[in-house]
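Example (one chain per record):
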Amino acid sequence: MRVSVLVVALAGVGCKKTPEAPRNLDQLSHDVYLHYDDPSALAVDVGDMLDTVLDLVGSEEAEKGFTLTDLSPDEVVAVDHPEDRDFSLLIGAAVMGFSTFPPADHAISMTESSQTWNDPHTYNRYDRVIVRGDADAFADGSGRIDTENDIEKAGAFGVTIPYDLMKDFQWVRTSAGDAVIARSWVEEHGCSENGKNCVMSSFSLEFYYPDPNNASGALRLTSTWIDLVTEADSLLTEEYSLDLLVNGIYDIFENTDAHLAGTLEE
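Predicted structure:
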């Protein structure tokens, strides 16, 4: 795995050990990415993942996030992606938590054309276009939408990285009720003007399950793998990079709920 994040910091300062993901969480993350376009296999995987999330969410271990094993080219064969990078350069993490809003509310936010609220302090631009699917039907709780996203993300010292993100969303029936599952990836590298800071590869999954213990809430899980190349790479350990990745996902969880509540400060 490669150490890569767009920050400048002392290696290892204040970072905590990110535990390896339990086998079910890790393997199911791989399986869901592979089976995303196979409704029958996906339904089984998503149901099994719900059981895994229910076992782990809220635990002390889960609060630290989990490291994921590397994806393989065979597992992402359904999407176009850069083919000039070794998959061992990806770093992977899984983070789960609770939302105070149900999947239906999250689905509505997924159809919005501006997505900067995911992290208003780092996204200079996050514009979404729905290229396939019925947005109204999806917002009402059924079907699938496929999107293209034009993003510019800010980093240290005024560096920005523009890139295009492909992201699909679909509803899946589970024993707890209907859930939303998202898959994202980049088809090409995205680099800063000087070419030294780049999103080389990125693959992610997001799960929004009904919370069996809170009818007005949701259980969230993000499994993500990313390969970044930056000018700060030599200063950081892999563990510090993972810690930043995990904390960034938690920030998105918090920002999303604040956006849905109308309290997000941008």
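Caption: Strands lie at 66-67, 91-99, 123-132, 144-154, 160-174, 177-185, 190-191, 198-211, 214-229.
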